[in-house]
Design a protein that fits this description.
The protein is α/β, with parallel strands linked by helices. The protein has helices at about 15-25, 40-45, 55-60, 85-95, 120, 155-170, 185-200, 210-220, 235-245, 285-300, 300-315, 330-340; strands at about 5-10, 30-35, 65-70, 100-105, 125-130, 140-145, 150, 175-180, 205-210, 230, 255-260, 265-270. It has two domains: about 1-100 and about 250-340, Isopropylmalate Dehydrogenase (3-Layer(aba) Sandwich), CATH 3.40.718.10; about 115-245, Isopropylmalate Dehydrogenase, CATH 3.40.718. Helices cover about 40% and strands about 20% of the residues. Helix 7 (about 185-200) links the parallel strand 8 and strand 9. The chain is globular, with a radius of gyration of 20 Å.
Length: about 350
């Protein structure tokens, strides 16, 4: 029986790169049924909300959710009463119980020259950022008056323990837990819980604690030092985007958001790039690689996932370059280059 995938093309370049991912998924013969829904700004325009109840229910009953990108200047507002596309993302994470975000960062040899860092700094880098996704300052209570605003940062032992467990299970040898324990009470609890779980369940994995400012510097100075980076919501948001630049372009990185028993959410790290929407210049590779992560983590199709990733690497090795990588290949040409390698 075919597995069900909900497609959320979203805004900006989203629909264009979604088409690319579908071409690749069809080419490898994955037996999947697709159901497409409006999401983000497109959903605000049609329904007045970034995530409708109907879309959320469809996602809950699917085997996996493939999301492209949301947002754009059209929906930017500082009015707390107006809907924003990003609210759809937060609502989806909460509704599906997606508490763990995995971002693999492995620069491809053919693209070493595209990175702003020297090749000898980034070669053999192979790390995963594991970010807690449903707690912390993004989800805490918010207040706002004309002259004062606050965002509450809250973490519970249970929330920290479950994300730490994902990190230890993902690691082969070492987990680096990132916090700000010299200043924040939430970080002190974070460090304590991670240390306790390590001692009880994962004593064979090496654990180190590092402050977030030091981690930000080390990611650039010595990225090979890291294997698995475990961190809370806001720190993880910032560090994973920083890590994206090791690959030369944020247009290259996929991500997976996982929870308990429900479907996972798979999406590229980059935004909706409204400035190039409709021009055919969007790099579809992060979306194609997100589809590969969906095959692996969401649908249990490891051989197909490996085939897609290998095809992307070979296409790049043979010279494929989109504008963000210093070349001229269009979205369609990039997709065709990957299809030829399949």
């Amino acid at each position: 029986m075919a597995q069900r995938v909900v497609l959320l093309p979203g805004d900006g370049i989203g629909p264009e790169i979604t088409r690319s991912a579908l071409e690749v998924l069809n080419a490898i013969g994955a037996d999947l049924d697709y159901e497409e829904h409006l999401f983000g700004g497109a959903s605000i325009d049609a329904h007045g909300t970034a995530l409708t109840d109907e879309t959320l229910e469809a996602c809950k009953s699917a085997d996996a959710v493939l999301l492209a990108a949301v947002g754009g200047p059209k929906w930017d507002t500082t009015d707390p009463d107006k809907p924003r596309p990003e609210q759809g993302l937060l609502g989806l994470r909460k509704g599906l119980g997606l508490f763990a975000n995995l971002r693999p960062v492995k620069p491809i040899p053919a693209l070493y020259d595209a990175s702003p860092l020297k090749p000898e700094l980034i070669e053999r880098t192979d790390l995963t950022v594991i970010r807690e996704l449903t707690g912390g300052i993004y989800f805490g209570a918010k207040t706002r008056t004309a002259d004062r605003a606050s965002d509450d940062c809250v973490y519970t032992r249970e929330e920290i323990e479950r994300i730490a467990r994902v990190a230890f299970q993902t690691a082969r040898s070492r987990v680096t837990s990132v916090d700000k324990a010299n200043v924040l009470e939430t970080s002190r609890l974070w460090r304590e819980v991670v240390r306790d779980l390590h001692a009880k369940e994962f004593p064979n994995i090496e654990l180190e604690h590092i402050l977030v400012d030091n981690a930000a510097m080390k990611l650039i100075a010595a990225p090979r030092h890291f294997e698995v980076i475990l961190t809370e919501n806001m720190f993880g948001d910032i560090l994973s985007d920083e890590a994206a630049m090791l690959t030369g372009s944020i247009g290259m990185l996929p991500s997976a958001s996982l929870g308990g028993d429900g479907p996972g959410l798979f999406e590229p790290v980059h935004g909706s790039a409204p400035d190039i929407a409709g021009t055919g210049q969007a790099n579809p590779l992060a979306m194609i690689l997100s589809a590969a992560l969906m095959l692996r983590h969401g649908l249990g199709m490891e051989p197909q996932a490996a085939a897609v990733e290998s095809a992307v690497e070979r296409a790049l090795a043979e010279g494929l370059r989109t504008p963000d990588l210093g070349g001229k290949a269009t979205t369609s040409e990039a997709t065709q280059a990957v299809l030829q390698q399949l």
